[in-house]
Amino acid sequence: MQITREKWSKNFSEWFDWVLREGEFYDYGRYPVKGMGVWMPYGFKLRQNIISIIRNLLDSTGHEEVLFPLLIPEDLLSRESTHIKGFEEEVFWVTKGGSEDLDVKLALRPTSEVAITTMENLWLKSYKQLPKKYYQIVSVFRYETKATRPMIRLREITTFKEAHTVHETYDDAQRQVEEAIEIYKKIFNNLAIPYVLSERPEWDRFAGALHTYAFDTIMPDGKVMQIGTVHHLGQNFSRALDFKIQKKDGSLDYPHQTSYGISDRAIASVIAIHGDDHGPILPPSVAPIKVVVVPIPAKNEEGTQQVMKYSIEICEMLNKNNITCVTDQDTEKTPGEKFYIWEIKGVPIRLEIGPRELASSTVFIKRRDNLKSYTVKKEEVVNKVKEVLNEIQEDLRKRAWESLKSRIEYANDIEKAKNILENNSGIVEVPWCGSKECGLKIEELTNARVLGYPIEDRKVNDKCVICKMNAKTVLRVAKTY
Ligand code: ZN
């Protein structure tokens, strides 16, 4: 398959495939199992950098990392009835060991609430041990029947960060939900990813949860992608698994739990959202390579070698200052060909160093995001690069937030909402009375998905778009991934 440069906002799906492959992030569609992709070395480094941000934020807020088995027996998975109903059509089953049929079917974990609660039941006995916050970063498996997409809709989600917490009371668990939301805001801010936070409606909660709060972002094509969820599980799982703890007043009771997850989609959004027609623009906070030096050949061989030496010297200076830099030493490719390659990799800063820079002991700095450039003295390079990296990080965040905000519209008429979604996509907020019936009708009439409603009170002086009763809040509707 020939993959050529595609328009970022016009032809996003093709653009994304092109970037993942040509930028050597992720090889998708060629491994012989549907819905499973391969992280290539460069993409793997980006993934590691994103995981580090997540891990640091969880570790510093008292979460402890664990690692549970991949397999969950069928009888355990089916213990919480809503939970199994929500997942049974998407579970991969292991039914044989060698040529023998297994006594109990084993599921490849689609998520780990029951697995973790089973062990918590053995480990946790008293309120004195609470709150308890565990997390793991693992593969989960879902037998997706819709069309799969690289990093976005997979059968193996390879970067599933799932946190699971235990609390004495409902309110303690609610406070944990709030902490999780704050942690996620920090994660997405670090990644310069804008988001909309909604409470999912009752008909679209996580299977087995009392409340589901979700972070959604808008992709370049206007479709909305869920990038993080936080669930208040109440006592549903502890009750189903007969997990009790001793409370402060001496009584035995089921503890309250929460769980929250982030997946490969966070990485997909980092690559997709800060792009242009030349490729992605990785935020400096996670870019595996922050600076690339492209030497510009001189008229003669000796001059070219001196330029190369000077380029390597500058790059080493940056590396010594913890700014990951690479010099492109390829002698076959032209500078233009090299620009093309490093742009698809999303490297935020390019240094162009040629005979002119060598003669004047300067460096030419070019920003990937807005093409601004600066010529600075060799001694000033480190400080200038640091400054420019910070500016890029900030500007990417601002640009992405502005773009997201410009794609949220209000419509007090269902036809208008439908039109917006069909033409510009993004998110439409419509006045809503709060009833499930009207919510489902809104979904049906707009031919879109309901994301939910704002978690803060929203004053709406309008009538519900369906029943014309006074609206209690707005319902957010979007075309989704
Ligand atoms: Zn209504």
UniProtKB/TrEMBL annotation:
Q: Where in the cell is it found?
A: Cytoplasm
- The leader peptide range reads none
Q: Which UniProt keywords apply?
A: Aminoacyl-tRNA synthetase, ATP-binding, Coiled coil, Cytoplasm, Ligase, Nucleotide-binding, Protein biosynthesis
Write out the coiled-coil annotation as residue ranges.
Answer: 371-398
**SUPFAM superfamilies registered for this protein in UniProt:** C-terminal domain of ProRS, Class II aaRS ABD-related, Class II aaRS and biotin synthetases
Q: How would you classify this enzyme at the top EC level?
A: ligase
Q: Which GO terms describe its cellular component?
A: aminoacyl-tRNA synthetase multienzyme complex; cytoplasm
Q: Mention one GO molecular function.
A: ATP binding
Q: Quote the EC number.
A: 6.1.1.15
Listed GO biological process terms: prolyl-tRNA aminoacylation
Task: Tell me the ranges covered by the Aminoacyl-transfer RNA synthetases class-II family profile domain, including all copies.
Answer: 41-283
Task: Name the domain of life this protein comes from.
Answer: Archaea
For this protein, what reaction is catalysed?
tRNA(Pro) + L-proline + ATP = L-prolyl-tRNA(Pro) + AMP + diphosphate
Q: Which family does it belong to?
A: Belongs to the class-II aminoacyl-tRNA synthetase family. ProS type 3 subfamily.
* PANTHER family hit by this protein: BIFUNCTIONAL GLUTAMATE_PROLINE--TRNA LIGASE, PROLYL-TRNA SYNTHETASE
Summary of the function given for this chain in its UniProt record: Catalyzes the attachment of proline to tRNA(Pro) in a two-step reaction: proline is first activated by ATP to form Pro-AMP and then transferred to the acceptor end of tRNA(Pro).
Oligomeric and partner information: Homodimer.
Its UniProt domain note says: Consists of three domains: the N-terminal catalytic domain, the anticodon-binding domain and the C-terminal extension.
- Protein's recorded name: Proline--tRNA ligase
Q: Which organism is it from?
A: Saccharolobus islandicus (strain HVE10/4)
Gene that this polypeptide is encoded by = proS
